């Protein structure tokens, strides 16, 4: 009887571990790399699936310091209350450096991203 109980416990544990492993791979945080040059991002449009992302921003002699602002399409990017603050990089990105944002969970919709310090246009990010 003990062997049967131990066997059932091991089978249940294996199924649980496998299910958690599959869930963690499906829910993995993805990294999106963005590069800024003088007056622009080199990535003009992004299309992503719903999920959680970290944005890495590189400064390729764009300006002394650059950053990232992400907003929902249709909102005024000049108003900080419209910014998705998790998308801000951890610190301003200096020449030749790369900095990352916090984790940002994006749902279906259209967003805009830009850098007010490098005075880039607003670019489109679509989440399907």
UniProtKB/TrEMBL annotation:
The question of whether Signal is a record keyword is answered with yes
Task: Indicate whether Signal appears among the record's keywords.
Answer: yes
Kindly provide the name given to this protein in its UniProt entry: Cupredoxin domain-containing protein
Q: Which Gene3D superfamilies match?
A: Cupredoxins - blue copper proteins (2.60.40.420)
Keyword terms, alphabetized: Signal
Q: Write the signal peptide boundaries.
A: 1-19
Give the source species: Hwangdonia seohaensis
Per the database record, which ranges form the EfeO-type cupredoxin-like domain? 10-127
